[in-house]
Amino acid sequence: MAENLLFVAEYPWKFTTETGKNLETWLYLPSYFDPPDVNKLIGDFFLLLFVCLQWQVFRTEAHVHSDTSHSYGGGSNGDILEEVEANMPIPVEDFTTIHESYLDVVKSGFFSYMYWVTLYIIFLAGTTRINLFSMGYIIGALCFMWYGQEFILKPLRKIRRSWNTFLCYTFFVIFLKASLQLLGCVYIDYLYDNQCWLIQLLGLTCLSPSKTYSPGVIEGWCFIPACF
């Protein structure tokens, strides 16, 4: 046993503080005493697999779009905005004005009311959490609700520009919230004791279910957002 221990090399990182251990867990660094959960790699594997498959589809569509002599079973996903603005005939049945089956009625109702369902979900996402990012969702939802059904009567380019702007804001929030996991999972104890306003302003929290808070003895009370 003693001979085997001679071949065990220590890792260059060796954290003794609580913040250092949290950083080691967040970075998923290997450890002899507290090894990370290997089951989490299963989810990462499937996530990487789906991203690679989606990337392959994007490459196929880009190749077909550049070379019209080739086609594939998925069909073309090219933009038809110019054809619609020019009132050119579209080789697709119009199920919104002509209902030939119950399926057309279902599709028409789905696309007619999904606008309001989407706005309800956006407004709900902004009201369930009280932080700086939720304000953008509430303002965006109220702006779209203010237009109402007249929003779909606006020019198509303005409609697409409005939705793309809101989608860009959503991607920005997702990226920033993922980046703020460093503060929420590593430095949350320090922020709890010294910068409680920052926790409440940004809604900082750690999505890891194994993370527990151990704040020091302070005066007052600091609310840490719950994970949903």
What structural keywords apply?
mainly alpha, about 0% strand
Question: Mind explaining what this structure looks like?
Answer:
The protein has ten helices and no strands. Helix 5 runs antiparallel to helix 6 (132-147) and helix 6 (132-147) runs antiparallel to helix 7. The longest helix has 27 residues, at 40-66. The chain has helices at residues 2-5, 18-26, 40-66, 81-85, 102-127, 132-147, 156-179, 181-186, 188-194, 196-202. 57% of the residues lie in helices and 0% in strands. It has 228 residues and is mainly α. It is extended and about 70 Å long.
Task: Describe the structure in brief.
This protein is mostly helical and 228 residues long. Helices cover 57% and strands 0% of the residues.
